[in-house]
Design a protein that fits this description.
The chain is 68% helix and 0% strand. The protein is mainly α. The protein has one domain. Helix 4 packs antiparallel against helix 5 and helix 4 packs across helix 6. The longest helix has 25 residues. It is globular, with a radius of gyration of 17 Å. Pfam families: Ubiq_cyt_C_chap. InterPro entries: Ubiq_cyt_c_chap, Ubiqinol_cyt_c_chaperone_CPB3, Ubq_cyt-c_CBP3-rel. It comes from Methylobacterium iners. This is Ubiquinol-cytochrome c chaperone domain-containing protein. Belongs to the CBP3 family.
Length: 189
Amino acid sequence: MVDGMIARLFRRSSARSQAVMTLHGRINDASRAPGLYTRLGVPDSVEGRFECLTLHVVLVLRRLHQLPPPAADVAQDLVNSVFLQLDASLREMGVGDFGVPKRMKKLGAAFYGRAEGCDVALDGGDEAALALALARNVIGVEGAEAGRGLARYVRAADASLAGADLDRLLGEGPRFPAPEAFAEPEVRP
């Protein structure tokens, strides 16, 4: 049964659009948490920020796909919003009109590939596979060891999101844990 707030929200497309934009903004903020870059190894680069944004969007989409209608509509609107942002970012970086579609196709393939890999590893409870995929795709290195902290973060974020209903996701937003809590302890000489 759709809660009253959600039912009202989806009667007006401008309200729904605003809610999705707010959700997207909160996901952007979470993907820019300094600890992801300083403690969990995500490179602070254009590619690293794309990978981190993708990771956080994928986690929220996983939850949205588990919820009843109209969550699937919100999920599609979120994907549309993310890809509009990516298109605008490419143009701001100076990619020309003819190059944008080609780059967007590559970004789309990367996005959906990351989503599938994350889903398989999380659904199967395979932390080693998750760490390996995160090390390779997000951190940009080979070997699961580099992705262990990020894998723990992703599992905790997925568990946190599992308790969120659509009202919470659109109201207060998704809750992501503090990345610093999942960093490997620093070894001092």
